[in-house]
Write the structure tokens for this entry.
Amino acid sequence: MRAQVRGLVKEGRLEFVNAGWSMHDEACPHYEDMINNMMAGNLFLLAEFDYKPRVGWQIDPFGHSAANPRLFAEMGFDAWFFARLDYEDKDLRLKNKEMEFIWRPFWDELGERGQIFTSILFDHYYPPNGFHVDESNQDSPIVDDPSRSNYNLEEKLELFHTAVISQSKSYKTPHILIPYGGDFWYGNAHMTFKNIDKLIKHYNAKYTDSVLFYSNPSTYVDAVQATETTWSVKYDDMLPYRDHPDAVWSGFFTSRATDKEYTRRNSANFRASQQLYSQKIFDTKLSLTEA
């Protein structure tokens, strides 16, 4: 199985995105913790697969700092994706086709070295409504046998085509990315992929204004960048996060405040001790014993 997975990675059929040890929060951690988190995961992939991710994937943190896109840019990512942003900001971006843009945090200090292409997912990180097909979800699967009493192929195709056209109106290029998954998905991966196969087959046979195919984030980024589109630019952050007028997701700033203060202080102290130790190691005036 390990050999099969390594083969899929080498062929580009399996892509790792972000590849941090976790998908870190961007508001509370010390920036050194963000770096160490990404380093731990990326070193694992480098050792196991000789693989370096190209795309950041921060789809569920509750708002986004300016520091994170800057770090991702300096880590060598070509782009990054996320899902959560203030609902008013999202409504405006949907209307103005600014769901994708160039983020330039710390522009005065870093210039282009700190900028990164940013893409916001259309419908959180789920497929369109009606296609949440898995053991933990309740949408009906695609039934393409006309002899069955629950035959629903035409209804499903029309529903998905409507979703494709709707999403395409909010993005500048001819390409759109539709994620197929979500919380607690793929408990029955066979069911999910069987439905995707049916959807792609019948959709492409019926419609000529759009084409469905299996893809991944880096393939999408390459296709979008090849269009040489002019993008809007953002310089500041995306905090705090609201998903409707009376819901400001700011509680994680204050919950367990003492623990978080200790964590941040210890992170800073740990980094300072690392720097002092490194200086001693490279101090040519000291012998190895003294160091």
